[in-house]
Amino acid sequence: MKRQKYHYGDHPSQWGELFLPEAPAARNGKPPSPRGIVVVIHGGYWRSQYGAELGEPLAKDLAAHGIVAWNLEYRRAGNGGGWPRTFEDVLAGIDKLREVAGEHGLDLNRVVALGHSAGGHLAVWAAGRDRLAELGAADADRQVARNLNGEAVHLTGVVSQSGLLNLAQAEWADLSNGAVSNLLGGSAERYPKRHKYADPMSAVPLSIPVYAVHGLDDDTVPVSQSEAYATAARAAGAPVQVVKVPGDHFSLIDPKAPSYRKCRDLVQELLQL
């Protein structure tokens, strides 16, 4: 396995690390190029004390199974992130793949996101970048809106691992002691347009497949987060499935756990491997 770090900005948290699997046996004198890329987006309720080290074991496991992985770091609330910078970084970090793929001869026709918890929110949100552009943006949101255009790398599928997919519900439930308001700089009452823009529910329906995987014993992010999103998406005709698996919130990012292996299987399905 080969790994290489790239920066997409000047901030210490604006980087991604590419994990390349061992090259398969050559055919006709040339090894085949890996098919597709998985963007690994870590969670941690968007707070700075949690970083890309959470995604590294997943990226290593994916590479060990022949899958190219892009472990994405981004600014979080507490280290220069929050609104709008966390959102800008996720889009810019995904778009950095255009340069990275060109350097390594990788396939951008299949780019799947694997996001855990807050990373699941950011993955599904990023998948809706075209739909979000249709919403328009308040004055404070125009920086993010600019990132919805240009040479974008579009996701072709998402596996959300206990993702926070309904921000309005998460704020109402005060999950993780006000994590949503902390991310967005204030309440939905104070910043209604900002909250709407940041909520994956606003971009329903997406045209790509989304698997909302959730642990049956998750007491960190309630399964209602996945269920509410899937209900709204399916009602709008979107291909979203809730997949309930054994284990708690963190078993989904434990490469030894059956619940994580189910996530890996779904990633492989989306990459058509």
TrEMBL record:
UniProt-recorded Gene Ontology molecular function terms: hydrolase activity
Coiled coil: none
Presence of the UniProt keyword Kinase in the record: no
Domain BD-FAE-like residues, every copy: 34-229
Pfam hit, one: BD-FAE
InterPro entries: AB_hydrolase_fold, BD-FAE-like_dom, GDXG_lipolytic_enzyme
Keywords: Hydrolase
Taxonomic superkingdom: Bacteria
Name recorded for this polypeptide: BD-FAE-like domain-containing protein
Lineage of origin: Bacteria, Bacillati, Actinomycetota, Actinomycetes, Micrococcales
